[in-house]
Design brief:
The protein is mainly alpha-helical. Helices cover about 60% and strands about 0% of the residues. The structure holds iron/sulfur cluster. InterPro entries: 4Fe4S_Fe-S-bd, 4Fe4S_Fe_S_CS, Helical_ferredxn.
């Protein structure tokens, strides 16, 4: 299955299981820093996140929450349904950044120096033999 197919399949699977209770939003340490989340309320923000997973445009508060995610993972143990809420957020963030070919719904920051930085860090941690194989 392609990555896009995997994103679609997992989005549909998790969106079907999610009740939209908003427990993940309530637990999220970044929620207070995302514009409009507090005013919208956790259930409405979760509903907007589900809309993104279902090919929708979400809501401003849900998009702010999706964009603010720092992958703390605190949302996952907070889910009463036992869902991997952190993965749902990751799927929503990929989608909102245009991973499926649609225009981005949230700002996308590109680091053109990403690969050189990874290589520079790897040179500090890998043996010369590993470097010759992988870099
Ligand atoms: S992922 Fe879990 S905690 Fe978050 S809205 Fe869905 S059911 Fe509730």
């Amino acid at each position: 299955m392609s990555l896009a197919g995997h994103i679609r399949a997992e989005s549909a699977r998790l969106a079907a299981l999610c009740t939209g209770c908003g427990g993940c939003v309530t637990a999220c340490p970044m929620a207070p820093y995302a514009a409009g989340v507090e005013a919208a309320g956790p259930a409405a923000v979760a509903a907007g996140m589900l809309d993104v997973l279902r090919d929708g445009a979400g809501t401003p508060a849900a998009l702010a929450w999706i964009a603010a995610c720092t992958r703390s993972g605190i949302c996952t143990p907070a889910c009463p349904e036992g869902l991997d809420a952190a993965f749902m957020l990751r799927l929503a963030q990929w989608r909102a950044k245009g991973a499926l070919g649609t225009p981005p719904l949230i700002p996308v920051r590109e680091d053109t120096q990403y690969s050189p930085k990874v290589k520079a860090f790897a040179r500090l941690t890998l043996t010369e033999e590993e470097q010759s194989r992988w870099l």
